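4.2 Preliminary Data

To establish feasibility before requesting continued support, the project team ran the inverse folding procedure on a target of 283 residues. The structure was first converted into the token representation described in Section 3, and no sequence information of any kind was made available to the design step. The complete token record follows.
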């Protein structure tokens, strides 16, 4: 039997169909007003502009509105904080996303921290992360939360399994590790200073590549029957795992494209719809 394809594109479509109905209910209860996701893009990085556009398109598909704030490359931290404050205070905005990365003169942590918890639909604040890690109610970072949705949809078991996460970024590797831990996986987190990485990966029942380097995790590091989560998205497009050579021996894998990417966007939109429902006390 061939490996199971963890089809994020198909599941994202299913999620969007359900969201369309929930947005309709929100509109009925709020005099026709749809929830709004505000995205802030600082600078002119073409990849970031594409991501922001894709998020806006996804909002439109579920009947939601999006508000794009585009700030110039030289924006200061103070100017960015002022924009965030305005969106925090705007009652029509339910979700607020600051597109990462921001230009280097900006204190990205300070900017993330400024986002109100109830509008932090991408789980970037320390409080949001901390609550998620403690198993309390909070929106998880969209990419790892989307990965967990995908694994759940395909009934991938976690309990007692050894999950190895390669990468420890605040938006991906670290929250994914906490989410897997909360679901009773035994988690190892690897990073650029990890020694004997191939040997650690060889022990993984679930391996997550979140490195940002094309095909960095080699097929011959992957155990027979493992589940591969390839969160990487590099030009090509190719992921962070040497997927083509690993497919024949794994149990299941996320394709690139069509795996983690669509789930990230669907999760972000779903969390904004939830924020809209909470604002109306219907969630
Ligand atoms: P990031 O912030 O650059 O973090 C990369 C992580 O990889 C860091 O923790 C780094 O370790 C680790 N790393 C780098 N070189 C390594 C090495 N030689 N051995 C082991 N670990 C190493 O990247 P990110 O934002 O998490 O993104 C990771 C990947 O996911 C990228 O391909 C990105 O495009 C993709 N991504 C996709 C989506 C989506 O929606 N599909 C969303 C977000 C990200 P240190 O901490 O020690 O530096």
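Position-by-position output of the design step:
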């Amino acid at each position: 039997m061939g490996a199971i394809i963890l089809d994020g594109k198909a599941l994202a479509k299913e999620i969007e169909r359900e969201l369309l109905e929930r947005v309709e209910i929100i509109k009925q209860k709020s005099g026709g007003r749809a929830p709004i996701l505000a995205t802030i893009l600082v600078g002119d990085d073409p990849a970031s502009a594409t991501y922001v556009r894709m998020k806006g398109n996804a909002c439109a598909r579920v009947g939601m509105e999006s508000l794009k704030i585009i700030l110039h490359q030289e924006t200061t931290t103070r100017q960015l904080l002022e924009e965030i404050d305005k969106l925090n205070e705007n009652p029509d905005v339910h979700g607020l996303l600051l597109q990462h990365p921001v230009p280097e003169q900006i204190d990205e942590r300070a900017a993330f921290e400024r986002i109100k918890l109830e509008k932090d639909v991408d789980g970037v604040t320390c409080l949001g992360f901390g609550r998620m890690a403690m198993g309390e109610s909070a929106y998880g970072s969209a990419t790892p939360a989307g990965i967990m949705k995908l694994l759940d949809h395909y009934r991938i078991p976690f309990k007692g399994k050894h999950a190895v996460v390669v990468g420890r970024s605040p938006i991906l590797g670290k929250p994914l590790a906490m989410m897997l831990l909360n679901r009773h996986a035994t988690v190892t987190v690897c990073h650029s200073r990890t020694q004997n990485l191939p040997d650690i990966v060889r022990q993984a029942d679930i391996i997550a590549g979140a490195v940002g380097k094309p095909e960095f995790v080699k097929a011959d590091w992957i155990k027979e029957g493992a589940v591969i989560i390839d969160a990487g998205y590099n030009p090509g497009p190719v992921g962070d795992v040497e997927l083509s050579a690993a497919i024949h021996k794994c149990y299941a894998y996320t394709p690139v494209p069509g795996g983690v990417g669509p789930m990230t966007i669907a999760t972000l939109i779903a969390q904004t719809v939830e924020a809209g429902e909470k604002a109306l006390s219907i969630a």
